[in-house]
Amino acid sequence: MSDQTLLLGLKLYEILTLIGIILGPIAAVIITLWAQKRSEKKQRRIEVLRTLWDTHYDASQPEYSRVIRMVPIEFNDENAVMTAWRRYMRNVDTRPSPEGAAAHEKEFADAKNDLIASVAKAVGINVTDRDIRDSVYIATSYTNRIKQTNDAEMAQIRIANALEQQTQILRDN
């Protein structure tokens, strides 16, 4: 059978060779593009986790806000992550009463930790709530600098208020 001419004067092994020559490179490109897309997706997701992990102790950092906004973009196909993100966002939007502030603060911290844990799990890293809580390290020099900056801003406000009062006294006289 392999000696018989099948199509356009070509034998079976020649047809199979021709098909391999044509389809082989196409398949290689498709596989390479698929692997590259998958790798890039995983890298973006790991970057979200790294930024969350690095900034979760201080929600006032712009990187933290940016990465929270990136979660539904990078993890929209992960139900556990999206559920944790929605829970976190409900807590962000909640303004508790003074008597409910402590309970809200705990729920907020739990929601944040669940979000970080679900993102970590989605990228193949298993962490516990304790791992997340223990990862909060802030150098004393950093906190001192933040305190100095806050103190300087408060001093500027006091100076501006004093100048306004002085100006008002001068106008009244």
Could you characterize what this model shows?
There is one protein chain. The protein contains six helices and two strands, in the order ββαααααα. It is mainly α and 173 residues long. A two-stranded antiparallel ribbon has the order 1-2. A hairpin with a 2-residue loop joins strand 1 and strand 2. Helix 1 packs antiparallel against helix 2 (62-74), helix 1 packs antiparallel against helix 4 and helix 3 (79-93) runs antiparallel to helix 4 (101-122). The termini are far apart.
Any low-confidence stretches, pLDDT <50, length ≥5? none
Mean pLDDT: 87
Distance between the termini: 117 Å
Q: Count the helices. How many?
A: 6
Question: What sort of overall outline do the alpha carbons produce when their principal axes are compared?
Answer: elongated
Most strands sheet: 2 strands, antiparallel
Radius of gyration: 30 Å
Query: What percent of the residues sit in helical stretches (DSSP H or I)?
Result: over 70%
* Strand order of the biggest β-sheet: 1-2
Secondary-structure element string:
EEHHHHHH
Total beta strand runs: 2
Beta percentage is: under 5%
The structural class is mainly alpha
SSE map:
Blueprint: E1 5-7, E2 10-11, H1 12-55, H2 62-74, H3 79-93, H4 101-122, H5 129-134, H6 140-172
Antiparallel strand pairs: 1-2
